[in-house]
Amino acid sequence: MKEATITAPSTGLKGSVIIPGDKSISHRSVMFGALAKATTEITNFLQGADCLSTISCFRKMGIEIENTPERILVHGKGLHGLSAPDSTLDTGNSGTTTRLISGILAGQNFSSILSGDDSLNSRPMARIMEPLNSMGAKITSIDGNNCAPLRIEPGTLHSIHYHSKVASAQVKSAILLAGLYADDTTAVTEPVLSRNHTELMLTGFGANIASETHADGTATASITPCEELYAQKIQVPGDISSAAYFIAAGLLVPGSEILVKNVGINPTRAGILKVCEAMGADITYLNETSAGGEPTADLLVRYSPLKATVVEGSIIPTLIDEIPVIAIMAAFAEGTTIIRDAAELKVKETNRIDTVVQNLRAMGGTVTPTDDGMIIEGTGALKGAHINSHLDHRIAMAFAIAGLVAEGDTVIGDSQCVDVSYPAFFKTIAQLR
Ligand SMILES: O=C(O)C1=C[C@@H](OP(=O)(O)O)[C@@H](O)[C@H](O)C1
Ligand SMILES: C=C(OP(=O)(O)O)C(=O)O
C-alpha cells in the first residue's frame, strides 16, 4: 500500500494540465459500443481502474475490445450479441459499472453474477433492483442485504414509468438500458436532472430517447426500443471531476496560474464552476468547443481569495463527486460554507460526509457534519496530517490539494486508490511545481 507525501510549494503553481477522459462517458462508450453493430472507436478514453473494469466485463461477455494508447476499438455485436460469462463479472470499485451493466444484463437470455471490492459490495443496489425487477427483471442480492454480489437471471421485460426518489444518473441509466429490451416506452422521472450522458450518447448511437425538464424542476427521460444501435466515433472530453482538483489548486495556492485544458462543461456536470464563481474565483473560459457531442473549454485559473457560499438544491447532482474538494476550498474561504441536500455522499465509495469530516479535522479544520452535508468554517489555515483515504480516490485527491496549502507535510494513505479515476494525478501535481 502506497503513501504520497505532499508539501506546500514555495511559489505559485504554474503551467498547464491536460485533463484525462471523462469517467462517465468512457464507461458508456464501451457499454453502448458493445451493444452496437460494428466497431466503435473511442479516443481519450480514461485508462482508470473503473473503466478498465467495464472493459473486462464486456470482454467476458464475448466482446472483442482492442485497447491501445491511441484509441479503443469496441467490436460490438448488436443488442442481442452478448454471450454468457463463464465466471463472475468483477466490477471492482465501480458503482457506474455495476449499476449500468445490471440494466443491460436484465435484458439478456443468460444468467450472470456481478461482484466488486468491499466498498462496492457495501453500496446500495435496491435502488436499481427495485425498478428493474418491477420491469420483470430477476435480480437478487446473493447475501440478501440489497448489495452486490447480485445474481441476474433471464427475465421478460415490460415498460414502466419509474419515479425515482434520488437524482441518480446510475439509476436512470440502468432503467433506460433495460428499456432497450422492454416491450414499449420506458420512462424515468427524477427529482432533479442528473448527468445526462446516457441520454445524449444513446441518441448518438441511434436509440429513441426523449428528455424533458418540467416546470417544477423534475426531469423525465424515456426510451422506446429500437432494432439496433449504430457504432460511433467518440472523442471523450476531459473529466470535470478530475479538473476540479487542479481548479482548486490554482485558486488556493498563492501566486498560481494554471491552464486546465480540455474540460467537459456539460451543464449537468459543471456545478463546481458555478460554486467557484459564487466564491469569487478568477476563472477565464478559453477555446470553447465540443468533443463527443459535449461542450468543452480550457479554463485559466488564477489564485483568488475565496468567500464562503451555500451549496444546496438542484445544483447538488451536478457536483456531487466534487464536494470533497469543495470542502477544502471552503476551509480557506472567508466565512461559513454550508453544504446541504447531499445525503447521496453517504453511499459513495465511502461515506464522504464522514471521511471528509474526519480528515479535515485531522488537519485542524473546523467542520460539523449534518444529515445531508456539512458546515465548514473558513479558518484560512490547515496543518499537515496523515490522511486516511479509506481507499476512496476522491478523498485522496481532495486532501492532496489541501496538502498543497497546509503547513507541514501531508501524507495520503493508500494513495494508489487515485488509479480508480486519475492514474496520473500525483505525477501531474509534481509537474506544476
Ligand atoms: O452515472 C455516472 O456515471 C455517475 C453518476 C453519479 O452517481 P449516482 O448516479 O449514484 O449519483 C456519480 O457519483 C458517479 O461518479 C458517476
Ligand atoms: C461515486 C463515484 O463513482 P462510482 O459511483 O462509479 O463508483 C466517483 O467516481 O466519485
From TrEMBL:
For binding phosphoenolpyruvate, which residues are annotated in this chain's numbering? K23, G95, R123, Q170, R352, R394
Q: EC number(s) in its UniProt entry?
A: 2.5.1.19
Active-site positions, per UniProt? Answer: D321 (proton acceptor)
Q: Which Pfam families match?
A: EPSP_synthase (PF00275)
What's the chief localization of this chain?
A: cytoplasm
Name the pathway.
Metabolic intermediate biosynthesis; chorismate biosynthesis; chorismate from D-erythrose 4-phosphate and phosphoenolpyruvate: step 6/7
> Which segments constitute the Enolpyruvate transferase domain?
10-428
Gene3D superfamilies cross-referenced by the UniProt entry:
Enolpyruvate transferase domain (3.65.10.10)
Which GO terms fall under molecular function for this chain's record?
3-phosphoshikimate 1-carboxyvinyltransferase activity
Matching entries from InterPro entries are given as: Enolpyruvate_Tfrase_dom, Enolpyruvate_Tfrase_sf, EPSP_synthase, EPSP_synthase_CS, RNA3'P_cycl/enolpyr_Trfase_a/b
Q: Where does 3-phosphoshikimate bind?
A: K23, S24, R28, S168, Q170, D321, K348
The answer to whether UniProt assigns keyword Cytoplasm to this entry is: yes
- Coiled-coil annotation reads none
Q: Where in the cell is it found?
A: Cytoplasm
Decide whether keyword Transferase is in the record. yes
Which UniProt key words apply to this protein? Amino-acid biosynthesis, Aromatic amino acid biosynthesis, Cytoplasm, Transferase
The record's annotation in SUPFAM superfamilies points to: EPT/RTPC-like
Known function: Catalyzes the transfer of the enolpyruvyl moiety of phosphoenolpyruvate (PEP) to the 5-hydroxyl of shikimate-3-phosphate (S3P) to produce enolpyruvyl shikimate-3-phosphate and inorganic phosphate.
SUBUNIT field: Monomer.
Q: Which PANTHER family match?
A: AROM/DEHYDROQUINATE SYNTHASE (PTHR21090), PENTAFUNCTIONAL AROM POLYPEPTIDE (PTHR21090:SF5)
Identify its protein family.
Answer: Belongs to the EPSP synthase family.
Task: Please report the name of this protein according to its UniProt entry.
Answer: 3-phosphoshikimate 1-carboxyvinyltransferase
Protein source organism: Dorea ammoniilytica
State the gene name recorded for this protein. Answer: aroA
